[in-house]
Write a structure and sequence with these properties.
By secondary structure, this protein is α+β, with helices and mostly antiparallel strands. Helices cover 46% and strands 19% of the residues. The protein has a six-stranded mixed β-sheet, sandwiched between helices. It has a five-stranded mixed β-sheet with strand order 1-7-6-8-9, with helices on both faces. It has a four-stranded antiparallel β-sheet with strand order 3-4-2-5. It is flat.
């Protein structure tokens, strides 16, 4: 292998070894998560994101041109991005890819430039960048590489400069973020990034890494709102054929933009989706003339993964019809009981997810396109899913907004404020206001020893969390619940709702409800089965 530059074949190999390295190390990276609760998923999210990139590049021939390999990497990471760390990684790779659009090989100077563009893209994707995270590690490593690069610098040396500064910065992240120092860990996202770079360097050197990254995970299934009660009406299907394909650009003289493609397709049908990069573009359209769509796309490049489905025939076979709505609602849920509550409150599409199983950008984007509504509201119900949801909104052909719900109780509160007869913006405003009026606490357990503030936590102890902050710890779960509620319930509060998880028996939950009801006679209490994993109780106070 030529060690003086990176071509398409080499980059392809580097993505695969980077993904394999991250897959092997993901559990160690998960353990670096600040809170010692069972939601450490930074390594898992980054691994799944890069596995999606690896899946795309693995489809390509080994002699693929550099720009196409880079585009496939960026597209796969974009669509597979999970969690905040995964979204940021996808942006780093997306910016990196754009720097290579007109190149057939990467030397050290172009490598440094690509790293810089990746940092720029990642910072733009985050509304309020926090220093002491993966962003800082990427930025300082990139800045140092750019300052030290010379015409004599070889690729291997450039990677070593990047990694040396990256690890130097990573070691300082506890000084930048007190919460890391208290927990005695470095930033998990930064560690994940450097693990990827180490794996890619191994691939550049021609080394192999045992293990294969995979995006197969049962947690990432989606569940739709039951539609068996709806009456069929095929006359409502204006465009009969659901047409999907991927265009791989092979015509160098073609300068057609995605905006031009979208404009052409919007005249041929509806539900138009055009996403990807300049060299790899995914198309989705409902049309009566799939032949015209394919003929047009053939002029832009080679066609792959073509799928044409007759939606009228599908409707007859299923004996259902999907209602056409002005506003559809998508909710991320974790647990059978929560699913039923969301359905009863009008959620159209449920995505199974939450702690340790964040849905990808593509999962959310597919849900947006599948809901038969002109506009969409999304309830992430987890702070680590908000970025992926916002990224999906940017890629969607529909008008959509993300209500920034960070917990299941906030999602339920937002649904109570939803009114399908009002427009999207008014609903969004009302739902945002609703979640600001609800308090949330969660009861779970510690997966490792840790210190958080003045609290010394041992593995296995029960933990009470108020609005994302650890508030109380004890070996006795009832002690945790009572003391956590004491810290959060105020005289003005009127209703407390408990959602008990899959590890709690109904009799236990009812006994607890009776006890706390006596302690707070002026407060109404409700109990519901949530069925959520990992968290014994989710509690809302309003």
């Amino acid at each position: 292998m030529n060690k003086t530059y990176i071509d398409g074949s080499t980059l392809r190999a580097m993505v695969l070894t980077g993904a394999s390295k991250l897959e092997i190390e993901k559990s160690k990276i998960d353990s670096l998560n600040v809170f010692p609760v069972p939601d450490g998923d930074t390594g898992t999210n980054m691994s799944l994101t890069l596995a999606s990139a690896a899946k795309e590049v693995e489809k390509l021939p080994k002699d693929i041109p550099l720009s196409q390999a880079a585009d496939a990497m960026a597209y796969g990471a974009l669509m597979g991005a999970r969690g905040n760390s995964g979204v940021i990684l996808s942006q780093l790779l997306g910016g990196f890819s754009k720097a290579l659009s007109n190149a057939d090989k990467i030397n050290a100077h172009l490598l440094a430039k690509a790293f810089s563009q990746g940092v720029d893209a990642a910072y733009k994707a985050v509304v309020k960048p926090v220093e002491g995270t993966i962003l800082t590690v990427a930025r300082e490593a990139s800045e140092t590489l750019n300052s030290k690069i010379t015409d004599e610098t070889e690729i291997t040396k450039a990677f070593e400069i990047y990694l040396d500064q990256g690890y130097n910065t990573l070691s300082k992240t506890p000084e930048m973020l007190p919460v890391l120092k208290q927990a005695g860990v470095v930033d998990a996202g930064g560690q994940g990034l450097l693990t990827v770079i180490e794996g890619m360097l191994a691939g550049f050197k021609g080394e192999t890494i045992q293990g294969k990254a995979t995006i197969e995970q049962k947690s990432y299934t989606t569940q739709t709102f039951p539609v068996s009660n709806f009456i069929i009406n095929n006359n409502e299907i204006q465009f009969q054929y659901c047409t999907e394909l991927i265009i791989k650009k092979i015509i160098d003289t073609n300068t057609t933009t995605q905006e031009q493609i979208r404009a052409f397709l919007e005249e041929k049908g509806d539900c138009v989706l055009v996403v990807g990069s300049d060299n790899i573009t995914k198309i989705h359209i409902h049309t009566n003339n799939p032949g015209l769509v394919l003929e047009y796309c053939c002029r832009l490049g080679s066609l792959h993964d073509i799928k044409i489905e007759n939606m009228r025939e599908q409707s007859r076979e299923l004996m259902i019809a999907v209602p056409n709505k002005n506003i559809g609602v998508i909710g991320v849920s974790a647990g059978e009981g929560i699913n039923e509550i969301f359905r009863s409150l009008g959620v159209d599409f449920i995505i199974m997810g939450g702690q340790t199983m964040n849905p990808s950008t593509e999962n959310i984007l597919s849900a947006i396109e599948d809901v038969n509504a002109r506009e969409i509201l999304i309830l992430p119900n987890n702070k680590n899913i908000i970025l992926a949801a916002q990224q999906a909104v940017k890629l969607s052909s529909k008008s959509a907004k993300v209500v920034t719900t960070k917990t299941i109780p906030q999602g339920i509160s937002a649904l109570m404020a939803f009114n399908g007869e009002l427009d999207l913006n008014i609903n969004y405003k009302k739902m945002q206001e609703a979640i600001s009026n609800i308090k949330t606490c969660e009861i779970t357990y510690a997966v490792r020893d840790a210190q958080h503030g003045d609290l010394f936590i041992k593995a296995g102890q029960n933990i009470g969390i108020i609005e994302g902050e650890i508030a109380y710890i004890s070996d006795d779960i009832e002690d945790v619940i009572l003391n956590t509620l004491q810290k959060i319930i105020e005289n003005k509060d009127e209703l407390v709702t408990l959602y008990y998880g899959e590890d709690v028996k109904e009799a236990q939950a009812e006994e607890l409800l009776q006890r706390i009801s006596k302690l707070y006679p002026n407060v109404d209490f409700e109990l519901h089965y949530g069925g959520q994993p990992l968290y014994y109780y989710l509690i809302s106070i309003e």
